[in-house]
Specification:
heterodimer; A: mainly alpha; two-stranded antiparallel ribbon; 2 helices; 59% helix; elongated; B: mainly alpha; 3-stranded antiparallel beta sheet; binds zinc ion
Chain lengths: 95, 461
């Protein structure tokens, strides 16, 4: 239950079997290394090594691709919802 | 890198479209009937109207989730317009403080000795129309001035104090309970229309507050335990304006909640409880005036022989607990989805700030019409404080109910944006923050639909 200096957060104590990645600059802990790399560059960008930055770029690119698919899904969901609503309106107002 | 700039570009446009799109469907709903202030026949059925509200919030989340670039989020939140504020325009605080003490005493005396008809009573109109409706609006729109104007605080500073240390264990509990108690008095007594009762409650509150500040000192009391000060401080956190030495900055709605190093400065669960209380009391007020409440809750319970006051007390406690439980449950699910090590306790505290714009939107919706209806009566009562001639409130333009709906939806959309920003502060990467928001957005959709159902439900009286 450590206090963190960045946002004043508390962390739950992970079980012994759980993977833990600790941020070297603050008390943030993560389940996955990817999240740690993201955090390090997003929060402590000026302290990161060139290697971390390189890794961040690689991970960002992978995430951007996933995000693109995610956004495509969202756009179709928006379209679908609008159409469904229009349909319901048509039935409710005509019928 | 091209992917980045593409995202930045598209998200900027989508954000603009979002604002346009979320405003588009609203005129369609203008004709929904059953609103407290209109007698227009229903053109679309209530269920469809409520559903549309939910869909608007859902879609606004979908649009907001296209904004994933941290720099862009920061740019939107820190966007501000600086206006020069000349020194000579600054009000003299001591004069205003003196005026507010004078108004308190004047209200007290007129409540007891003045006319007892609510629409010709200065006390009733001043406290409910000007202060509770109008002044509260200025707090969440322009900033918290209550710390400076609070007449009780000004009086307590002049009095001696024992300066006992304020028990940290109590936290905001006295404020939360005080606020609920205040609502209990509001719904359970004739305080909203009897100037005499209003004065009695004011005297009671004055004694309690001065005793509290006598024991614990003025500053700790008004910072922690006084429900009204805390209420205005919370609302002030989301105002559009901040003032610095010789300029005034205008922010986008609610963005003050997420700029700076911490969100709302919340540090403990009891403060979350206070925000939930603010949200709950705005809804509760509307809920108990519906026909639904009368038919399904009030009349059955009254027929069982339960006194009205107990029903109000129970429904306040149960409803408040339910609100907190739903919020907390959403946070637990969010914690599970994101797979984060940040404790549920911390998430609970950090996301609470996103509920404030909903409460403010609802307040604005609820009280704009009220303020406009009774403001002329207040002006009349100011100039004829002892005249018992009742004033006929003017009827409102037909677009006021539409405005109320827009305010409710804008409050919710603002909340969606704030919770988006909070999750981008707490979680790393771009997908994890998006997924972690699902449960919170889900309860916001439900809550919008619930609010819209309340405002379109027929009134009991
Ligand atoms: Zn860190």
């Amino acid at each position: 239950m450590e206090k963190n200096s960045v946002l004043g957060l508390e962390f739950s104590t992970p079980r012994a079997s759980d993977p833990v990645e600790t941020c070297p600059f603050c008390e943030f802990i993560f389940r996955e290394r990817d999240d740690l790399i993201f955090h390090m560059v997003e929060v402590h960008s000026h302290k990161c090594s060139a290697k971390t930055n390189e890794e961040y770029r690689r991970l960002s690119l992978i995430e951007s691709n996933k995000l693109f698919i995610y956004h495509l899904k969202i756009c179709s969901l928006i379209m679908l919802t609008m159409m469904a609503l229009a349909y319901i309106y048509a039935f409710a107002l005509v019928g | 890198m091209t992917g980045f700039s593409l995202f930045k570009f598209t998200s900027k446009w989508f954000f603009l479209i979002l604002i346009g799109a979320s405003l588009l469907p609203i005129p369609v709903m203008a004709h929904a009937g059953g609103l407290p202030l209109t007698n227009e026949p229903a053109i679309i059925p209530t269920w469809l109207f409520v559903l549309t509200g939910g869909v608007i919030i859902g879609i606004s989340f979908l649009f907001v989730s296209l904004v994933t670039h941290r720099q862009l989020i920061d740019n939107i939140n820190s966007y501000q317009l600086s206006l020069p504020f000349p020194q000579f325009l600054k009000p003299n605080i001591s004069i205003l403080q003196f005026l507010s003490i004078f108004l308190l005493i004047y209200t007290l005396i007129l409540g007891i000795f003045g006319p007892q008809n609510p629409v010709s009573s200065f006390s009733i109109l001043f406290v409910w129309v000007i202060w509770w409706a109008g002044y509260t609006m200025t707090v969440y729109l322009f900033g918290n001035t209550w710390d400076a104007l609070n007449p009780w605080k000004s009086i307590s500073i002049l009095l001696p104090s024992l300066n006992h240390p304020y028990p940290s264990k109590l936290g905001s509990w006295p404020a939360s309970i005080g606020l609920l108690f205040f609502v209990l008095i509001e719904v359970g007594s004739d305080i909203t229309y009897s100037p005499y009762t209003l004065s009695l409650v004011l005297i009671f509150y004055t004694i309690l507050t001065l005793m509290g500040s006598f024991v614990y000192g003025s500053k700790p009391w008004f910072e922690n335990a006084d429900p009204i000060s805390k209420f205005f401080r919370c609302y002030g956190e989301m105002s559009l304006l901040t003032s610095s030495k010789n300029s005034i900055e205008i922010h986008l709605p609610g963005t003050k909640l997420v700029t700076g190093s911490n969100t709302l400065g919340l540090s403990a669960r009891h403060e979350v409880l206070f925000i939930i209380t603010i949200l709950f009391i705005t809804t509760y007020d509307g809920l108990i005036s519906t026909q639904f409440w009368n038919k399904w809750v009030l009349i059955p319970l009254l027929s069982l022989g339960i006194p009205l006051l107990i029903i109000h007390l129970l429904s306040l406690i149960v409803g408040h607990g339910l609100f907190y439980a739903i919020y907390h449950y959403a946070i637990i699910i969010s914690h599970r989805i994101s797979g984060t090590y940040i404790s549920i306790h911390s998430l609970n505290i950090k996301f609470a700030a996103s509920l404030l714009p909903i409460a403010a939107g609802y307040h604005l919706a609820h009280f704009t019409g009220y303020l406009l209806t009774f403001f002329p009566a207040f002006v009349y009562a100011t100039f004829h404080p002892l005249s018992p001639v009742p004033f006929h409130p003017n009827s409102l333009p037909h677009w006021i109910p539409l405005l109320a709906l827009i305010f409710i939806l804008l409050g919710h959309i603002c909340s969606v944006w704030i919770s988006h920003c909070i999750s981008f502060k707490l979680f790393s990467g771009r997908l994890q923050p998006l997924r972690s928001q699902y449960p919170i957005i889900f309860i916001m959709i439900l809550y919008t639909m619930f609010s819209l159902w309340i405002v379109t439900s027929p009134l009991a009286r």
